[in-house]
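Long-time lurker, finally posting.

We've been working with Nucleotide-binding universal stress protein, UspA family (Asanoa hainanensis) and I want a structural starting point before designing mutants. I don't trust myself to interpret raw outputs, so I'm hoping someone here can both generate the structure tokens and explain anything notable. Sequence follows.
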Amino acid sequence: MDKPVVVGVDGSPASIAAARYAAELASRRLAPLLIVHGYVHPLGYGAAGVSPYTPALPDPRADGANLLARVASGVARQFPCLDTATEQVAAGAAPALIERSRGAEAVVVGHRGIGGCAELLVGSVGSQVAARASGPVVIFRPITERQAAAPVLVGVDGSAGCLPALAFAFDEAARRALPLLAVHVADERVEPAWLAESMLETVVAPWTDKYPLVDVRCQVRPASVVDRAMVDASSNASLAVVGSRGRGGISGLLLGSVSQALVHQARCPVAVVHPYATGSIHA
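Top reply, 14 upvotes:
Generated this for you. Predicted structure of Nucleotide-binding universal stress protein, UspA family:
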């Protein structure tokens, strides 16, 4: 069975837009779409699991079923040939999506859901899923018409963690017929420009051989703050792609500082690419 693209919906405008984006992603990848609504039981069933005082799993809710039907209907009108299924899960949204990521092609969430606070740039569900899921997680944000034709941006630091990101970024650029911009941010005080350029070209070379039709540009950006430089670069991208942790990753942290910054502050959709549950992606 083909792995589905999984998208979480809660009725918020951001989640409805994320569902459309997920449908486009699934259509490009010839994958089915699974629309998931995780509901929290008012008597104690939620992200933490079943309360010891709850005798059984709660039944699916009518409002959740109606929401899923509306979203699926909208997807069917836009993508009539897309194999689409829905699922209501007796759990919090984040645990439901994290669990389903293990058998998914990718997971898509909106940048903010119904419970999103105005001062937060990404909702708690998106943060949790981006940190803990398997495979690619796309945090969807709307972009301008100009950005839609902009390159796919991928961050490259030379670590093993950037290999899944390169695989996803090149595949998306090829499927969308978009150029790809591979960026390495280098602090010239500790990494000479010539060394940074050599590393970037060496790491990207196998992927340019595999995807000869993708227009690739490599760019070394001199900066001392890597995450700020990548957020700035996302202003001119249709999609920003990063690994979950780079060469500066600290053991115990689920996301590196660059991934976290992009999840919260990027100016375009962001794909945080973890290795799939069965292993990493390689050229």
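Before you design anything, note these points.
The chain has two domains: 5-140, 145-273.
Strands lie at 5-8, 33-38, 84-89, 106-110, 136-140, 152-155, 180-186, 216-222, 239-243, 270-273.
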